[in-house]
Amino acid sequence: MRTRSKARSRAVEALFEAEQRSVSIAEVFERNPEVNEYAVEIAQVVADNTERIDEIISTYLADRVIERMPALDRAIARVAVAELVWYQDTDTSVIVSEAMEIAETLSTEKSAKFLNGLLGSIAKSRGSISSL
């Protein structure tokens, strides 16, 4: 697995753990200081911008509510949206396909298909979505 791929997966796991344990992302990474720097960076972007990221996701959920998404799928979507919005130099197809791979590994095939549709819709508007 490539370095960025591992980092994305670790960021998802850390965000999921932080939400489940009701602790900060910093606390999760303090327990594992040897984690990839990009994992810490992208997870912190999500933590700092969760409200905006959830607003973006909610816009594309149609008839669903973000709070009803499985927590793991929510973490995967948050990491992908953070990269789509705050890391414009990262290739869109890489972000979406790696989110699907993470979902297939950590969640379910059904989740991967759902996230593919959701993130594909968000990705189409990538250039017009503001981080503000």
List the SSEs and their pairings:
Layout: H1 3-21, H2 25-30, H3 37-48, H4 50-60, H5 71-86, H6 92-106, H7 109-124
Helix pairs in contact: 1-3, 1-5, 3-5, 4-5, 5-6, 5-7, 6-7
At a glance:
Helices cover 72% and strands 0% of the residues. It has 132 residues and is mainly α.
Main attributes?
132 residues, 72% helix
Model description:
- With 132 residues, the chain is mostly helical.
- The protein has one domain (3-128): N-utilizing Substance Protein B Homolog, Chain A (Orthogonal Bundle).
- It has helices at residues 3-21, 25-30, 37-48, 50-60, 71-86, 92-106, 109-124.
- Helix 1 crosses helix 3, helix 5 runs antiparallel to helix 6 and helix 6 packs antiparallel against helix 7.
- The longest helix has 19 residues, at 3-21.
- The termini are far apart.
